[in-house]
Amino acid sequence: MAIRKLRFEGDPILNKNCREVKEMTPRLQELAQDLLDTMYEQNGVGLAAPQVGILRRIAVIDVGEGPYVFVNPRIVETEGEQVGDEGCLSVPGMAGCVRRPMRVVTEAFDINMEPFRVEGEGLFARAMCHEFDHLDGHLYTEKVEGELHEAVYADPDEEDYEEDYETEE
Ligand code: ZN
């Protein structure tokens, strides 16, 4: 388990095309695990290899339905449309409105290079589109409709903070 250093918008590595994984290796399995660790540590729902400086077609997603590792993912079906705010760990503190399909079907390989097919709706569909764009060197900021704006997050630590504060009084 390791937390990797994130790359941020402006870093040219984020605009490069990633290479396909031809053969799974212990190093790439470690990368996939590190992507998950780094994503959870940053409270993200997805992370792609170029965001930690590795130009390989590997991305991870967990929108609350358990972790998925996608190797060489390919979107094979899309349906409908959703418009909503999106953010990215490589563009910290910001959000912007992006149009994505409502439903996406993806074919990919897992961490053991076993092929699988998964269908996602809503946030999961959005996350797949967003993460797989990274593998082609694209950031969501290219697709934002209207202005990029500061992200407003509900702070999960705020209540704890208030409790601590009251205890001190
Ligand atoms: Zn991103």
How is this structure best described in words?
Helix content is 24%, strand content 33%. It contains 3 helices and 8 strands, in the order H-E-E-E-E-E-E-E-H-E-H. 28% of the residues are buried. It has 169 residues and is of the alpha+beta class. The model is unreliable at 160-169 (pLDDT under 50). The protein has a single domain, classed as Alpha-Beta Complex (Peptide Deformylase). It has a 5-stranded antiparallel beta sheet with strand order 1-2-3-6-7, sandwiched between helices. Strands 4-5-8 form a 3-stranded antiparallel beta sheet. It starts with 25 loop residues before the first helix and ends with a helix. Zinc ion is lined by residues 88, 90, 130, 134.
Gist of the model:
This protein has 169 residues and is of the alpha+beta class.
Question: What structural keywords apply?
Answer:
single chain; 169 residues; alpha+beta; Peptide Deformylase; five-stranded antiparallel sheet; three-stranded antiparallel sheet; 3 helices; 8 strands; 24% helix; globular; disordered C terminus; binds zinc ion
Give the % helix: 10-25%
The CATH topology is: Peptide Deformylase
Count structural domains.
Answer: 1
Shape: globular
